[in-house]
Amino acid sequence: MKKIAILLAAFIGCSAFQKKISAPVKTKVPEIFQTFAPEVQRFYISPAVDEQIQTRNGTIFTIPKDSIYLPFDYRAGDSIELEIKEYTNPVEFLSSGFSLGYIESNSFKQLDSAGMFDIKALYQNSELHLKNKISVKFRNLNPGKSYNLYKVVDNEWQYSGSNQQVAEYREKQEFLYRVFTGIDKFTLWNFDLPVDNSCINISLKSLKIDQQNPIFYSVFSTSNFRINFKWYPSNILNINVPINDTVNILFWSGKKIGIIKGIQTPTSPLGKDNYPTDENCLKKGDFDLDFVTEDVLKESNKRIQYLYST
After folding, report:
1. What highest taxon heads this organism's lineage (predicted)?
2. Rg of the Cα trace of the chain?
3. How many CB atoms lie within 10 A of CB 92?
4. CATH number of the domain enclosing 275
5. 135: burial class by Cβ within 10 Å (0-12, 13-18, 19+)?
6. pLDDT (0 to 100) of residue 10
7. What are phi and psi of 91, to 5 degrees?
8. Residue 305: alpha-carbon gap to chain centroid
9. Out of 76-80, 165-169, 294-298, which region has the weakest mean confidence (pLDDT)?
10. How many CB atoms lie within 10 A of CB 233?
11. 3-state class of 33 per DSSP?
12. pTM for this entry
């Protein structure tokens, strides 16, 4: 079964005896990035009948009757609450704490996303579980390709199947969806296409970074829905990046923000059984960051300009 690393930019200690790359757990991101989380949408359904709900973004969930395990104290006729979050851009992906990193056959990959959603069911504030599979028709954010679907299980991405783009026409308008009929868990789900990645080596000047004072960074592709992030305990960083791309790298330390822009990534992948090390990563040189306050990220238009301009 395919397993996915939570972090693409992985700093993994290794020796000649290591045979497998392990998958880290969810990352606790700084508070400023948690504020970018999408709004929770709430719906109320009857578990005893077939239900269909539509989100503000046009995503449609189909929930057949008797799909949800009901608690012993459930009272016939009561409603079940569904909580749904839709992640529609990399800044929102960052708020989830799950980096879009993928490990297949001990090779690092980068996930190119077509959107994420988180779905939960509750009864009297207690979380419920699925008994039978439900379906989703997700408004496609990255048209034209066949994508896989992944879910979070035990704080890791887990491969769950593949799907094709579906087009619908209403009132002379085309609507593109990703359709998946195998939703078997209330959790975070992600439509993604794995792409090869490599790594770069950079050195940060004039900063005290160690195990007690790590720095948080996030890699933003300037042209794709790709993002990865991590806490790092050293001034010299080996950072996984998608191949053949241009990325900006955001840094956070002590409520201050810095950024390196327009880094061209390597054209060759890191390869099987290779770790991001000083020897394996392309050296990009020394950087002296100009830090500003977190305020630069608080207003939406300024945030997009700061993160994506090159």
Report:
1. Bacteria
2. 21
3. 18
4. 2.60.40
5. middle
6. 37
7. -65, -40
8. 21
9. 165-169
10. 13
11. helix
12. 0.86
| DSSP tag of 308 | H
In a domain, 74, yes or no: yes
Mean pLDDT rounded to a whole number for the chain: 88
Q: Residues 206-224: what's their mean pLDDT?
A: 92
3-state DSSP: the chain helix, strand, coil percent, rounded to 5? 10, 50, 45
Q: Which domain holds residue 235?
A: 198-308
Residue 7 in domain: no
How far apart are alpha carbons 12 and 8 in whole angstroms? 11
Number of domains in the chain: 2
Last-in-domain residue among 193, 215, 243: 193
- Say what the alpha-carbon torsion angle 239, 301, 111, 157 is, to the nearest 10 degrees: 90
Answer whether residue 247 is part of any domain: yes
Three-class DSSP category at 213: coil
Q: How confident is the model at residue 106 (pLDDT cuts 50, 70, 90)?
A: confident
Q: Is 70 exceeded by the pLDDT of residue 8?
A: no
Query: Six-digit token pair at 24?
Result: 């880290």
| Spatial CA neighbour of 226 closest among 203, 243, 202 | 243
282-287 and 188-204 beta bridge pairing: parallel
- What whole-number distance in Å separates Cα of residue 273 and Cα of residue 270? 9
For the chain, the first-to-last Cα distance in angstroms comes to: 39
Domain end position, chosen among 193, 210, 226: 193
